[in-house]
Design goal:
Strand order of the largest sheet: 1-2-12-11-8-9
Distance between the termini: 16 Å
Largest sheet: 6 strands, antiparallel
Helix content: 25-40%
Low-confidence stretches: none
Order of helices and strands: EEEEHHEEEEEHHEEHHHE
């Protein structure tokens, strides 16, 4: 997808792989706005809860995002509030799905909206992340809602120790649980030419340092960067990899 406006374009790509799991429970999509150039939503969900339960939860996140973004008007609606609505509506629908099934479907979410003004709003719940890179340098990333992240915050673990901790997949917040999901938002005042927004599940970011991620998304076009990230994650998983997914949007100059 490429959207042209005021001397730049939004170049985008997604990547997804089942990893070494029997079932694919990640879902990812980038939605260009159908009526407004320079506006796009990226959304990613890492489903949990049995072979079909997790996929149902992730599907519900994507469906909710599609419906919400279809009626979203950048000139009228607040992007941060729209993302909160996405999380709350998807959470409710996943809980309703659980009533009619024997599984307990849960899902993470990592989503962002790039506005025609080149502002970017971000939301996440769980351990799927959104990174903002300026060139190859990481400007910011979301902070996981997880047990090991809490230990990092308390100074009991380093980031590297947390990455290899046996309880690294234990979440403190996500969609579909009895408690309300976290509504942790972020905002970028202006995306500059060469900036990249990367959303990815833990099946991908687990295998990379921020420096490695930044180098790849800066050096390669989005499609090639997506393929490289998936390929390297698969190599590094050595036969034990989780589902993985990513959504990448970069602000490129018009050539």
């Amino acid at each position: 997808m490429s959207t042209t406006l005021q001397g730049y374009r939004l170049s985008a790509a997604t990547g997804i792989h089942r990893g070494d799991r029997a079932y694919q429970q990640d879902q990812v999509q980038i939605l260009p706005h159908t009526r407004v150039p320079g506006c796009a939503m990226g959304v990613l969900a890492d489903g949990m809860g049995g072979k079909s339960g997790g996929r149902k939860a992730a599907d519900q996140v994507i469906l909710t995002a599609q419906q919400l973004f279809d009626r979203y008007a950048p000139s009228r609606d607040d992007p941060g509030e729209a993302l909160k609505q996405l999380v709350l509506e998807a959470h409710l629908m996943i809980k309703l799905t659980a009533i009619t099934s024997e599984e307990e479907p849960h899902s993470t979410v990592a989503a962002f909206i790039v506005s025609p003004t080149r502002e970017c709003d971000v939301i996440h719940a769980g351990d799927s992340r959104v990174y903002h890179f300026r060139g190859a340098e990481m400007m910011s990333r979301t902070i996981d809602h997880s047990f090991v992240q809490r230990l990092v915050d308390e100074g009991q673990l380093t980031e590297e120790e947390a990455n290899n901790h046996p309880q690294s997949n234990l979440l403190t917040g996500c969609l579909g649980t009895a408690q309300d999901p976290p509504l942790t938002t972020g905002h970028v005042d202006r995306l500059e030419i060469g900036d990249t927004i990367l959303a990815c599940s833990d099946g991908l970011w687990h295998y990379f340092t921020p420096k490695e991620l930044g180098a790849i998304v800066h050096a390669l076009q989005p499609r090639e960067a997506s393929e490289m990230l998936v390929s390297k994650a698969r190599q590094r998983a050595r036969g034990g990899g989780d589902n993985l997914s990513l959504a990448l949007v970069r602000v490129d100059p018009l050539s």
